[in-house]
Structure formats: structure tokens, C-alpha cells
Amino acid sequence: QVQLVESGGGLVQAGGSLRVSCAASGRTFSFSRYTMGWFRQAPEKEREFVAAISWLGGRTVYADSVQGRFSISRVNDENTINLEMNSLKREGTAVYYCSATRALTRLDDAALYEFWGQGTQVSVSS
Fold it and tell me: pLDDT tens digits for 88-115?
């Protein structure tokens, strides 16, 4: 059984920074063989792609809305990924979800992700 557990959410002022993390576990889960992603879902909106990072971290993909402000990273030895969020905007208020896929393309497609965490709330105030 695979578990993805997010942490680090909270309340931050617009323009501020926050880091959310995700810890992966599972006896048969080969973390280093999965592309990891972050998605978010704001109230009354559909879940949207935020960022993804390839197996060895050599490739990262970002949504246009966060490009240049967010940074995704991973530490394979610790089975964790992080999302550094800078210059946060009010529209960044959402539940942020960690996810895992073996896909190598179309990384912004939520349907390709096999495993999901429960999410962590990020709230950005004005």
C-alpha cells in the first residue's frame, strides 16, 4: 500500500513564501521510479496541475501560473518531495495534493497519476 502524506500547509500573506512537503511510503513503492507531482484545488474549482518532477529530478514542469515563483524538488534517499512557493497570490489558496505517476509525458494530466495524498491546505490572505 502506498501512502503520500503532505505537510507544511498554512496561512501566509500575499507576497509571502511557504514550503509544502510530501513523504512517500509503501513496502512495494519504488519512489525513485516515479514522477512526482503537485496539484491544487481551490473551493468550487477543478483540481489543477501545479508542478511535476521526473524520477531523478532532472526534469521539472510547471503550470504557467506558477512558473518562476514555485520550485519543486525531490530527495530520493528520503522519499520526499518539496514545493517551495514564493510570491504567493490570493488565488494560490487551495488544497495542495501530492501525487505519483510512472508517466513520462503529459505530466499535467491528473488522470495519469496513480497515487494521491490527502492534501494540505494553503491559505493566502491579502
Answer: 999 999 999 999 999 989 999 999 999 9
